[in-house]
Amino acid sequence: MHFEILVEGKTELTALSILMPKIVGVYGEPHTWKIHKHRGIGKLPTDPQIRPNPQDMTLLHQLPAKLRAYAKNIDEQRVVVVLLDLDDKNPFTFHQQLTSLVNYCQQPLEVKFQFAVEELEAWYLGDIAALQQFNPKIKSQVLEQYQQDSICGTWEILAEADEPAVLKSKKRSALVLDKKKEWAKKIPLHMEVIHNQSPSFQGFVSCLKRYM
């Protein structure tokens, strides 16, 4: 099976590039994948049928057109997987909005929508052993207070445990973005798929394994 995976940005691309072989095995033996990054999550266009603005490369803005393009080129050995941060969105309503986009495709399309709840850092927090390997001095008392996949400011909790000074910066500051890049590059190296306690991570794993 070939997996076309659409993600919000560079950190998801980095993390999944490390995690995919752990989930589905060595690339090409027999499964393959391609991960497509975007410039953030963005918003769904008011009219999903319109041509997207080429200046807006956010995932949701480009998504309807990308799904239509995939549907024009049917491949029974391909599945499209869209990974999004749930943030504070209602999962049922958001999933309905996303699945409705398939109605604008001219042919049936095998597409699955998966969420990182609340955001990608929830997947890291699902594996405390990996976090301790990443940073032996990480604050275990902070990690132990986290409730898996809760909507609570996930990246802030990880920052508080790993490097509290980061919390003094704004969410989109260079310092925070650099820290997120570091997490994406280093933490997945230590993650064990079967031991991860994040329900949304295991949902993503199960989604892929259905096609193996």
TrEMBL record:
Superkingdom in the source lineage: Bacteria
Matching Pfam families: DUF4276
Official protein name in the record: DUF4276 domain-containing protein
Species whose genome carries this gene: Vibrio spartinae
Lineage: Bacteria, Pseudomonadati, Pseudomonadota, Gammaproteobacteria, Vibrionales
